[in-house]
Write a structure and sequence with these properties.
Layout lengths: L3 E2 H9 L3 H9 L3 E3 L2 E2 L6 E2 L6 E3 L2 E2 L7 E6 L29 E2 L8 E7 L2 H8 L7 E7 L5 H9 L13 E7 L2 E8 L6 H7 L5 E9 L2 E2 L9 E3 L2 H6 L6
Parallel strand pairs: 9-13
Antiparallel strand pairs: 1-4, 2-3, 2-5, 5-6, 7-9, 7-15, 8-9, 10-12, 10-13, 11-12, 13-14
Helix pairs in contact: 1-2
This protein binds uracil.
Amino acid sequence: MGLKRLDKLIALNCNVSRRDARKLIKDGAVTLNSAVVLRAEELVDPDVDDITVKGYNFTAKEHVYIMLNKPQGVISATTDPKKKTVIDIIPESLKRRSLFPAGRLDRDTTGLLIITDDGAFAHKIMSPAHHVYKTYQAVLSFPIDENDVAKLESGITLGDGTECLPAKVKPVTVDGLPAAIIKIREGKYHQVKRMFHALGNNVEQLRRLQIGSLKLDAALPEGDCRELTEEELELVFIDEE
Ligand code: URA
């Protein structure tokens, strides 16, 4: 990460303002290589220097990447005056300033959502040019047939004339209900729902299972989240096939 100002590093990693970070330093709550440090502008290298804040070891990270198993009823936004957002349900221990969802899931869609403070990473996931496929399980009103699959896989035109890029589709059943596993690499508004709607079908339930080769952790209950490991982060940009 290189040399960074101590107050800036603490603000970023401890979810406090620069002002509060300076106060922590002034109050003697921060040590650098076992000695109390009182200079907010001290330049430190978090990869080399040993830093503690209020006695706790401090691991500085430039960015955070959180896997959330999004429940129904929360919106993919950072703030909202009325509705609960995906940021509201992140526990304090993982919160940082500038967290936002890397992409959007509808309020009633569940499953894998990555929350981060890394804008370049989010852009790379979302931009169709980077070919990151997102995999959804859609429970449908009616089973789909080979014709439907062919239309979706050759690039379906939505009701308003919007052309979709070719998807990858597999008909399945979920608890005996008609369903499909669909992979798309764009994120148009209500895209999966509108794609099935264009076939005269209806999405009853939508769940995102995967981004690139990164799968939603099956042990992560709905509404819970955890940090991604470095290996998991790399899977996002690896195509399965
Ligand atoms: N497509 C949709 O229709 N909704 C989502 O939440 C994600 C993809």
